[in-house]
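To whoever is covering the structure queue this week,

Two jobs came back overnight. Logging them here so there's a record in the thread.

Job A:
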Amino acid sequence: MKIDPQSSADLSAQIAQAIRDAIISGQLIVDERLPSESELAEQFNVSRPTVREALKRLAAQSLIRTQRGATGGAFVNRLSFEGAYSQQVTTSTLLLSMNAVSFDTACEARYALERACASLSAQRRTADQLATMRAEIFRQAQPGLTDEAFCASDVAFHRALVDGAGNPVLSYQLASAVEAMQPLMNMITFTARSREEIIALHANIANALEARDAEKVDAALVQLESYTRQLAQDVAQKKRKPA
C-alpha cells in the first residue's frame, strides 16, 4: 500500500483509499487485523493523527471496525447489503438535491429501474411481501393519515415490490429509486395527487403480482409513472399562474 506525498490530495484520504483498494483487491481479507496506528504511520511516513483520520473515514464507510482490548485493533469488516443500503439512500438523496436533477429525469430513472424488477417480482414475490403490499394499501386508505405517513407507506409498498425480485443486488441498486427519489417526488406532487387514484394503481400492481402476471405489473407501473408525471405538470402550471 502506497501514497504519493507530492499529491495535492489530503494524506488521510490517500491512506484511506490505499487501504480501501487493498480490501477490494483481496490483499486485505475480511476479519484481518490491520497494522497498528504506529505501524501504519511508519509505513506511510505520516503522523498517527493522520492515520487515525484515515481509519475514521474507513469506519464511516463500514469498511473496517474497531475493537478494544489486548486483542483489539482495526479489522476489515464484512459488508452486508442491508448495512450498505442506508448509505446508498443518503448518497442518492444528496446527489439529487444538490445537483438540481429535474423531476422528469428522476421520474424516468425511478420507474425504469423499478420496471426492471417487475418480471422477477412476478415470478418470485413471497406471500409475506404480497401481504406487506396489501397492508400498505389498507393503511393508505385510512382517513386522517398524514402526508408524511402516506409517503412512508408509499415507499414501503414499492420497497416490497423491489424486494420481491429476490435479488439483493437489485434491492441495493434500487435503494436510490425507492427510498431517495420516491420521497422527493412525493414532496413535489402531494398537493395535487389523488390518494384514491394512487391506491387504485397500487391495487392493480398487487393484483398483478398475486396473479404472477409480469405484463400487467409492468403496465400498472407505466400507468403510475404517467400519473406521477401529470401531477408534476399540474403543480408546475399552477405555480406559473398569476395570483
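Job B:
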Amino acid sequence: MREGAYAGVMFALLAAVGFSAKAILVKLAYQYRVDTITLLALRMAFAMPFFIAVLLWVRRKQIDPLSLRDKMMVLGLGLIGYYLSSFFDFLGLNYITAGLERLILFLYPTITVILSALIYRRAIGKKVLVAMVLSYLGIALVFLHDAGNRQGESVLLGAMLVFASTLSYSIYLVGAGHAIARIGAERFTSYAMIVASSACLLQFGATHPLSALELPVRVYEYAIAMAVFSTVLPVFMLSYAIRHIGSAHASLIGSIGPVSTIYLAYLFLNEQVTLLQIAGAMLVMSGVLIISLNRNRP
C-alpha cells in the first residue's frame, strides 16, 4: 500500500470518529443548560474563521468569480445542507440518545438514492431496495429500544427532528454535485459553511440578548472542540481520504461512525449498550454499505 493510501485510511478513520464525537459534545454541553440556538451559534462562530482562511487560500489559485447562478446555489445549499441540517440535529439531540441520532444521520445514502430516483428518474435496483429495508429495520429496532427506556413521545419527536436533518443534508448532496464540479470542492464547502455560520449567528442575534453568552467555561470548551474536531478537521480529512483511497473505501471505513458513537456515548454519557441496539446498528451499517459500495462501483 502506498504511503498516501495509508494516510488516506487513517484520515478516513479519524474523520468518522470526529463526526461521531459531535453528538457526544452536544450532549455534554446540554448538561450546562445551554439552549440549542446558542450552542449552534458558538460552534459555527468558532468554525467560520477556519473556512474563511481556507477560502482565501483557495481563491489565490481560483480567481474566477462566481456566476449569479453559482452564488444562488451556494446560498441555498449552504442554508439547507449545513444550517437547517445542523439546527434540526441539535434540536433532536435534546430528546434522543447520541447512538440513535448517529444511526438516523447515517441513513443519508438511502435518502439520497430515493431523491435521485424521484428527481432524475433513476431506477432503484433490487440490491439497493434490500439494503434500504435492512437500514430502516435497524432504525426501527433501536427506536423501539430507546422508546421503551424513555418517554415514547419525546423519542419520536427527537427522531423526527434528526430525520429532518438527514433529509436536509441529503437534499444538499443531490443538489451540490454540479456546483462542486464548477466551483471546486474546497471553495464550495468553504462558501457554504460561511453561509450557514452567518445564518446561525443571525438567528442567535435575532432571538437572544448578548447576556446569553454568559455561560460556563466548559460550554465554550465543548463548542471549540465541536468546531475543530467535529467540523473543520473531519471535512478536510475526509476529502484527503477520498482523494487517495477513493469514495468506496472511504465509505467502508466511515461505517465505523455509528459504532464509535455508541461506544463514546457509553464511555462519556453512560448510555447503555444492549444486544438489540447492536443488532440495529449492524443492520443500518450493512444496508448503507451495500448502497455506498454499489453506488461507487465503476
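Note for Job B: Residues 3-295 form one domain.

Please reply-all if you pick these up so we don't duplicate work.
Q.
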